[in-house]
Design goal:
- This protein is of the alpha+beta class.
- 47% of the residues lie in helices and 9% in strands.
- It has a single domain, classed as Cytochrome P450 (Cytochrome p450, Orthogonal Bundle), CATH 1.10.630.
- The strands form three sheets. It has a five-stranded mixed sheet with strand order 1-2-8-5-3, sandwiched between helices.
- Helix 7 runs antiparallel to helix 11 and helix 11 crosses helix 12.
- It is globular.
């Protein structure tokens, strides 16, 4: 008896620091298993996770973020189809009107709008901005030879990258950084309240931008945002455009800042790996993929069964919440050899599903990969001998790290590092 049978994957604080033994235990019992605390069907196998995420006809995304806490009406066994209930219920759920919670065909239209905004040309222009921004952020703290990385670099960097991508006016960017940098005051507060406040701010600003640019077009990115249409040519309401913009900030900014932070933690804990990436920059992209596989930043991606189905021999009635544990799938030994070991040159590292799978595969994945690569290359150029602060996190072998108390994201609350400035 390991105690994992009684562990609560959503609330157990013991699973915050190191959830991976729990994931492994659950997968060894069965890659699909109903947990008793909330009645969700936990998916820990790679193939099974891909099957769920790739089948939007059977598995609705309406509870993607809140999972069992969405308040979906109780459905008795034997019901054939809950699709009609899902459509009535969707608007009342957390993030229910956002891309992450939509199903086709509505999801197809809104994702098409997003992809018209994240074009290869715009991403190239945005990456040019990233190189300059990375240096500006490092300039703010390099003379101290130490920093709290999430607050001093990762969060402002990712927020400002998206403000540039969407063409937020220069005079508003300081306001965006202050309102969206949740770590600027040292963290704390209710994560749900922080998210709601951030989303309300973003809705108001982008509705204002879209309405103003439709009245008075300019030669700027926001005008292109305001003029973008759905793939069928119809013009979206300003609120729909605001939802897309807010989604980029809410989903892309926080997850990418956690990815960059996890990557630096990995390098600061392994001086040899740190030097390898300095000497051989071509390894950086695969390093980032392996970080995503071993320490992916999204923990849970939920679905709701529209109809009765079976997965890995387990029968699942209609109207049940399925919890796809992405980091567990990415450590499935049936897919990845020696899965708990970090291998910088792992040949199939990019086969992970850290960015999801199917119609909800992260549209911003190319942006996140570029942000992480640019950030790490400039950090390694300008900061030598990067090491974990023992004052804040303890000595090697007895580290003390704090992780965000959420079942949605896997991310450090802070990361204090020391280094020797270069040049």
């Amino acid at each position: 008896m390991t105690g994992f049978d009684s562990a609560d994957v959503y609330t157990d604080p013991d699973l915050l620091d190191d959830p991976y033994p729990y994931y492994e235990y659950m997968r060894m019992q069965c890659p699909v298993r109903r947990e008793p605390q909330h009645g969700t069907y936990v998916v820990t196998g790679f193939e099974e996770s891909v099957a769920v995420l790739s089948d939007s006809g059977t598995f609705s995304s309406c509870v993607s973020m809140p999972g069992p806490f969405a308040g979906f009406p109780e459905v008795p066994d034997g019901v054939d189809d809950v699709s009609e209930v899902i459509e009535r219920f969707r608007a009342a759920t957390t993030m229910g009107q956002h891309l992450i919670s939509l199903d086709p065909p509505e999801h197809t239209a809104h994702r098409g709008l997003l992809m018209r905004l994240i074009t290869p040309k715009r991403l190239k222009e945005n990456e040019e901005f990233m190189w300059r921004l990375a240096d500006r952020q490092i300039d703010e703290f390099i003379a101290r030879s130490e920093c709290e990385f999430l607050r001093d670099f990762a969060t402002p960097f990712t927020v400002l990258v998206i403000t540039d991508l969407l063409g937020v006016p220069d005079e508003d960017r300081v306001t965006f950084r202050k309102r969206l940098d949740h770590n600027s005051a040292g963290g704390g507060g209710d994560p749900g309240a922080i998210m709601r406040d951030s989303l309300a701010f973003l809705y108001d600003k982008f509705v204002e931008y879209v309405e103003e640019r439709r009245r008075s077009p300019r030669d700027d990115v926001l005008t292109g945002l305001a003029a973008a249409t759905f793939p069928d040519g119809t013009v979206p309401e300003p609120e729909h455009v605001a939802h897309i913009a807010a989604f980029l900030f809410a989903a892309g900014g926080d997850t990418t800042s956690r990815l960059i932070t996890a990557s630096l933690q990995m390098l600061a804990e392994d001086r040899g790996l740190q030097q390898l990436l300095r000497d051989e920059r071509a390894r950086t992209p695969n390093f980032i993929e392996e970080v995503l596989r071993v320490e992916g930043v999204v923990k849970s991606d939920h679905r709701l069964t529209r109809v009765p189905t079976a997965l890995a021999g387990v029968d699942i009635p209609a109207g049940r919440v399925v919890n796809v544990l992405l980091p567990a799938a990415n450590r499935d030994p049936r897919r990845f050899e020696d899965p708990n070991r970090f291998v910088v040159d792992r040949p199939n590292a990019r086969h992970h599903i850290g960015f999801g799978q199917g119609v909800h595969t992260c549209a911003g994945a190319p942006l996140a990969r570029a942000e992480a690569r640019v950030a790490l290359e400039r950090i390694l150029d300008r900061m030598a001998d990067i090491r974990i602060s023992e004052q804040h996190h303890g000595p090697v072998g007895n580290r003390r790290y704090e992780y965000e108390p959420t079942f949605v994201l896997r991310g450090l609350s802070n990361l204090h590092v020391e280094f020797t400035p270069v040049g």
